[in-house]
Specification:
Layout lengths: L14 H12 L6 E8 L2 E8 L2 H7 L4 E7 L8 H21 L8 E5 L10 H8 L4 H6 L11 E4 L4 H4 L3 H12 L3 E9 L9 E5 L18 H4 L3 E11 H20 L4 H6 L7 H12 L7 E2 L4 H20 L14
Parallel strand pairs: 4-5, 4-6, 6-8
Antiparallel strand pairs: 1-2, 2-3, 3-7, 7-8, 8-9
Helix pairs in contact: 3-12, 4-12, 9-11
GO molecular function, one term: hydrolase activity
Function: Initiates the rapid degradation of small, acid-soluble proteins during spore germination.
Enzyme class: hydrolase
C-alpha cells in the first residue's frame, strides 16, 4: 500500500517525524534528503537538508534546512540541563544564521506567534517577553550602544480570534516600517509522537504558517510573503487523540510480545493490526475517531510549568546567538 502523506500533514509540524513516516513506509532512505545526527549530554541534534522537490513532496515539507534538538530530560525541570540546552541551541542557531548568509550586523525582528491566554499556545508571546530588545537604543541613543549588540525588536501580534487581524498582516506592516533583515518567528507546534511533546525544539529556514499543526490553513510568515528571510522556531506542545491511540497499539504489541515470549499470541489478540504499518494504522484510527468528534487536540497536564521553562531556554539561546556580548555565563542577567 502506498502512503499518502497528505492525510497526515496536519498531524505533525516536525520534519524529522515526516521523514520517519516515509522511511518506515518505504523501508529505506529518501533520495534528496541528507541527515546528520549528533548526541551528547542528553541532547540529540538532528540536521536535515531537504535538497530537492522530490524529497519535499515525499515528506510533505518545504525544501530547506531543519534542525531538531531532542531533550527528554527537559520534562524533569533540571536547571543545569536547561542551561546546557540554551547553550546548544545558541551554537546551532549561530551556525544556522551563518549557513543561510545572515551577518552579525543584520537587524532582527522576533515574532512571538500564539495566544497568550491559552497556555499550550503561549510559547511565542513568552519568548518575546524574555528576549533582549535593543532597536530603541539604536534609534534614540546610538552613540551609547556598546559593541557586541545588534538591533533586535520583538512583537507578539496575537491571534486572529482576539485581534481580528491575521498575524501575517500585522507583521507585514511592521516589516514595511522597520525594515528588518531577518524575521525569527516562534510558535507552538503539533507532534505525532508523545515522547517529543515538551522535549523538542525545531529550527527551520522555511518560515512558518500559524495554526498549520492543528489544521488551520492561513497566510504564513515566509520570505515569499514578507520579502525578508524568515526562520521558524517551534516546540510541539500538543498532539491528537488519534496519535495517543496509535501509540497505545504499539505499547500493547510490545507488552503482549514480552508476556507471551514472542510465540505468536500477539497476533491472535490484536489481529490484522499487527500487520499494518504505523502510517496505515494511524489512518485507520483517524477514520474511526473523526466522525465521532473524538480526535481531540491534547496537551500534557504539566504544560503550565513546561511552557515557562522552554520559553526561557529559547529566549536565552536567542540572546546568546544574536548578541556577541552575551555569553552562556552572563545570559541570566539579560533574560527576564
Amino acid at each position: 500500500m502506498s502512503l499518502d502523506l497528505q492525510q497526515y500533514s496536519v498531524r505533525t509540524d516536525l520534519a524529522l517525524e515526516s521523514k520517519e513516516i516515509v522511511e518506515s513506509s518505504q523501508g529505506g532512505p529518501i533520495p534528496g534528503l541528507s541527515e546528520q545526527v549528533e548526541e551528547q549530554n542528553g541532547i540529540k541534534i538532528t540536521r536535515l537538508d531537504v535538497a530537492n522537490e522530490e524529497a519535499s513532496r515525499q515528506i510533505g515539507k518545504v525544501q530547506g534546512h531543519y534542525i531538531t534538538l531532542e531533550v527528554p530530560g527537559l520534562r524533569n525541570q533540571d536547571t543545569e540541563l536547561q542551561e546546557q540546552v540554551s547553550a546548544a541551541f545558541a551554537k546551532e542557531f549561530s551556525s544556522f544564521l551563518t549557513k543561510i548568509g545572515i551577518s552579525s550586523e543584520a537587524k532582527v525582528l522576533i515574532v512571538g506567534l500564539g495566544n497568550w491566554n491559552v497556555t499550550p499556545d503561549a510559547l511565542g508571546p513568552l519568548v518575546v517577553e524574555n528576549v533582549m530588545v535593543t532597536r530603541h537604543y539604536f534609534e534614540l541613543t546610538p552613540d551609547q550602544v556598546s559593541p557586541g549588540y545588534r538591533q533586535v525588536s520583538a512583537v507578539a501580534p496575537g491571534v486572529l480570534g482576539i485581534t481580528g487581524i491575521e498575524s501575517s498582516e500585522v507583521v507585514r506592516g511592521i516589516v514595511d516600517r522597520t525594515k528588518p533583515d531577518l524575521i525569527i518567528a516562534i510558535d507552538a507546534l503539533a507532534s505525532r509522537s508523545l515522547e517529543r511533546i515538551n522535549t523538542t525544539i525545531q529550527i527551520a529556514d522555511i518560515g512558518i504558517h500559524p495554526g498549520s499543526g492543528i489544521g488551520n490553513k492561513r497566510k504564513g510568515l515566509t520570505k515569499d510573503i514578507l520579502g525578508v528571510p524568515c526562520i521558524a522556531i517551534g516546540v510541539p506542545t500538543v498532539c491528537y487523540a488519534s496519535t495517543i491511540v496509535n501509540n497505545v497499539f504499539d505499547l500493547m504489541k510490545t507488552h503482549f510480545n514480552q508476556e507471551s515470549g514472542g510465540n505468536g499470541q500477539t497476533k491472535q489478540i490484536m489481529g490484522l493490526l499487527t500487520e499494518l504499518s504505523e502510517g496505515e494504522r494511524l489512518g485507520l484510527v483517524k477514520e474511526v475517531l473523526e466522525p465521532l468528534g473524538h480526535d481531540l487536540i491534547v496537551t500534557p497536564k504539566e504544560i503550565d510549568e513546561f511552557i515557562e521553562d522552554v520559553a526561557n531556554v529559547i529566549a536565552s539561546g536567542l540572546n546568546i546567538s544574536l548578541h556577541e556580548a552575551i555569553t552562556p555565563d552572563n545570559v541570566a542577567a539579560y533574560t527576564h
